[in-house]
Amino acid sequence: MAILDVTDLTTRFRTDDGIVKAVSGVSFSLDKGKTLGVVGESGSGKSVTFLTLMGLVDKRHAEVSGSVIFDGDEILGLSSSRLRNIRGKRIGMIFQDPMTSLNPVKKIGWQLEEAVMLHNDVTKDEARRRAIEILKEVEIPKADTRVDDYPHQFSGGMRQRVMIAMALINNPEVLIADEPTTALDVTTQAQILRLMTKLQQDHEMAIVMITHDLGVVAELADDVLVMYGGRVVEEAVVDDLFAKPEMPYTWGLLGSLPRLHVTSERLEQIPGQPPSLLHPPRGCAFNPRCAYAFDRCREELPELRAGAVGVDHRFRCHLADEDRARIWEAKKATLEREGSAA
Amino acid sequence: MSELLAVDNLQKYFPVTRGLVFQKEVGQVKAVDGVSFTLEKGETLGVVGESGCGKSTMARCIARLLEPTGGSITFDGREITHLKRNDMRPVRRDMMMVFQDPYASLNARKRVGSIVGEPLEVHGIGTDQDRKRRVQELLEIVGLNPEHYNRFPHEFSGGQRQRIGIARALVINPKLVICDEPVSALDVSVQAQILNLLKDLQQDFDLTYIFIAHDLNVVRHVSDRVMVMYLGKPVETALKQDLYTEPKHPYTGALLSAVPIAEPTAGRARKQIVLTGDVPSPLNPPTACRFHPRCPRFVDGKCNVDEPLLTPAPGQPEHEFACHFPLERWPMDEDEIRRRPAFAGTTTSPAPASAE
Known about the structure:
The complex is a heterodimer of chains A (about 350) and B (about 350).
Chain A: E1 2-15, E2 18-31, E3 35-39, H1 46-53, E4 62-70, E5 73-74, H2 80-84, E6 91-94, H3 98-101, H4 108-119, H5 124-137, H6 143-146, H7 156-168, E7 174-178, H8 186-203, E8 206-211, H9 214-220, E9 223-228, E10 231-237, H10 238-243, H11 248-255, H12 295-299, E11 304-306, E12 314-316, H13 321-341
Parallel strand pairs in A: 3-8, 3-9, 6-7, 7-8
Antiparallel strand pairs in A: 1-2, 1-4, 4-5, 9-10, 10-12, 11-12
Helix pairs in contact in A: 4-5, 5-7, 7-8
Chain B: E1 3-18, E2 24-40, E3 44-48, H1 55-62, E4 70-75, E5 78-79, H2 85-92, E6 95-98, H3 112-122, H4 128-141, H5 158-170, E7 176-180, H6 188-205, E8 208-213, H7 216-222, E9 225-230, E10 233-239, H8 240-245, H9 250-258, H10 264-269, E11 311-313, E12 316-321, H11 334-338
Parallel strand pairs in B: 3-8, 3-9, 6-7, 7-8
Antiparallel strand pairs in B: 1-2, 1-4, 4-5, 9-10, 10-12, 11-12
């Protein structure tokens, strides 16, 4: 059953230079207890999508349309006071940089207690007990003394644990994690990912994992959205996406990834730069960088459609099914040949 | 091939002082503590480790941007460890750096032409016209447009800025290029472009690289040899293929298995070692083997008393590691790695040793 159902979400920012089409017609649904991976490069609209649905974009400069149904209720366009009952309580959020997301002049305990007391009618003592409890749950050693430390006394990985603790302290139904491990070392990243998986099981949360790292997505996600130029360009169950990606951009992403078990001398690269959202290209946003683009791609935006594989695997591409299948088989063969040479 | 760079027992200690006027030294941060390696012409050495392991400090010492506390650096047959500023200047022509953050490493008030041309100007090479020609040539080589000469850095994207940084490093034909996390701030698709560019340039201009990164995937793609550092010391050095298939040090194993695999089935099936805790403070590093508080193979009375030295692996003279209980095979999962071979003085089960 879907806890979060987003339909045709669109965000446009008015700037002095013109209108930035940050998010265009994004739709997806997230089931209880599932993890949705959202992948894309910087500027693909992945963060703005979720800031919009949380009501965190500045209404004075942004035009928002579409619908966001959370647990049966429309939350897009709710007043700040109504939203406050949802944000931080029923939907938690973790941001990329744990240093700038914590208040440097307040103790960790204070910041956690604030989150509890804002949403629950509890005494300060109870809030503090809850804060220590959640710090233990995110595996911070000596939680009962560390609760009185300041953020600067924690390492990067520990701070990210505190951020997770803060997002989880009110037992949210949905956790939105925006690049939670990008600023961390691989070893710390592995710790945090393992912790998130464990907490997801304990709390039966749905998680949205926004990342540019396909490895993290492969590890954690059940379903994946690939975003490009403010649009969803491919969506699929994680195994299908990696086994049979349908969109040239996804091929490029998979090819450009340096991998431990692949020894090829050169990486496949996607030429050019991500598109400007101020003046997006006509037709398919990926056409200027796509090796297979033809006239129709430059004129007409491809619909998000299902191919031969099934209704759950949808993508935007004008290429005929048999052409795509042929190109991918060839690519896969190269990737596998390199893999076996390792 | 001949040796371009030899680093011997390099040390860099930062004093920790207390007091405003009479600064009293209360301790030392041993950021780099005994790093030795040699680098052949045309070779790429990858340096990996978590943040705080001293890899950037080491690079800065080699480029003499920091004064080493001890050890020696021999570059192109000449000892440069304590050269004076003036004597160092000609050496700097042969040694350039590419920095991590392409947003911070380019002067925002200067035009691309003068940023890229600055090394030429500093070293007084050529006339203005020669320089301009050279800069435009370089911009083209790194995949930018020579017409970008008069633009400002803010007009470029991250990947393009990193290309500018690379052009600046190459403009005076250096022999050694030290790349300090050159792609970690970039998107994957752009990262691939820059990695390919660096490889092409190496072939075309016969460059030698020291390539610092925290991402083992990236290092694998560009390096011939890889050095893994932990808290200021190298723990394992090996040829690329050996390090990735037969890591000996448990820390290398942990780093390798921590990298997420971009294939769901392989990812779920793999054996993973997740380290606990963080890198300890270099102000007060653990005794003997610095990795022992986090090590799954820690043996009390050995690892925390007797410091392991870098020793070559049997049959692989170029594969050195510093560990009393090296990994017997790879991959291993957490339970396997804990069952280390028997050691005199402990009573752990000797079972897996027979498998070898």
